[in-house]
Amino acid sequence: MRIFDAHAHYNDAAFPPEELDSVLKNAFSSGVTHIINAGTDIETSKESIALAGEYAEIYAAVGIYPHECIKIADKNATLDELRSLLKHDKVVSLGEIGLDYHYDDTPKEMQKEFFDAQLSIAEELGIPVEIHDREAHGDTLDILKAHKNARGLMHSYSGSYETAKELIGIGFIISISGPVTFKNARQSVEVAERIPLEFMAVETDSPYLSPVPKRGTRNDSSNLVYTVGKIAELRNVAPEVIAETTRKNALTLFGIKE
Ligand SMILES: [Zn+2]
Predict the structure, then answer these.
(1) pLDDT tens for residues 4-43?
(2) CB count, 10 Å around CB of 227?
(3) Sheet holding 172-176: strands in order across?
(4) pTM
(5) Which residue among 82, 157, 196, 242 is buried most deeply as judged by most CB within 10 Å?
(6) Spacing, Cα 208 to ligand 1 middle (Å)
């Protein structure tokens, strides 16, 4: 089975440098063919590009995460730097960007301003985005609708089936992660069951969100088999069908040729 991990953070401190290589090689030998490693600010975006330079299987997303906006002193200089990072060969996405209303350490207006500005850059450069939306489904959808040429991936999607259909309608694919395997999962199970397979991707969000039976431990891409297995069970198809279709969807979205 070949799998595309559409969103991970391997430059996170949870992966000490001396362990990272064996974690990644284990994931590749378990069938993971591609990983999008996402940045959350300029520094982690640069780290992401460096990691992509070391492994053929890894590609980078670069962007400013909602709760990093408040730390930025000069918005225009930061966005200019982001533009230059986006020119790198192995950068295939602008992300992760979006809105997060779970914590209130960054004012909503500031989050929206950065989200909006980064979506405009993505539209201008024709590059797909990776969207983080936590407890901000309404505002996220409104802002995405205002950017008619934006397209991309709804990372670790946690909204309703109805909203997923709307997002698909405006050019987004829905990325399913570990929580679909959780006992109390309801909305994400419905989404994984009902959205058309040609608009689905899978991801780990490593080191977070480990699927059952690895829940609570550090996540890595080799655990994607559990998420794929759960989706296959829900849809009553072979896991290989889920893995290969989501892999093709991601390859197409990010413009990666094999
Ligand atoms: Zn993430």
Answers:
(1) 999 999 999 999 999 999 999 999 999 999 999 999 999 9
(2) 30
(3) 3-8, 32-38, 58-62, 91-100, 129-134, 152-154, 172-176, 200-202
(4) 0.97
(5) 157
(6) 8
CA gap 112, 183 in Å, rounded: 33
**Longest Cα pair distance anywhere in the chain, in angstroms?**
51
First to last CA, the chain: 16
Distance CA 181, CA 191 (A): 13
Sign of CA dihedral 226, 197, 99, 72: positive
* Spacing, Cα 237 to ligand 1 middle (Å): 28
Cα-to-centroid distance, 38 and ligand 1 (Å): 6
Q: How far apart are CA 36 and CA 18, in angstroms?
A: 21
Domains of the chain: 3-235+243-253 (3.20.20.140)
* Ligand 1 center–CA 47 separation, angstroms: 14
Statement: residue 52 has pLDDT above 90:
yes
Task: Kindly tell me the burial class for residue 149, based on how many C-beta atoms sit within 10 Å of its own C-beta (0-12, 13-18, 19 or more).
Answer: exposed
Give CA separation, 95 vs 48, 86, 108, 243, 246, in Å. Answer: 11, 10, 18, 23, 19
Assess contact for 201 and 92: CB atoms under 8 A.
Answer: no
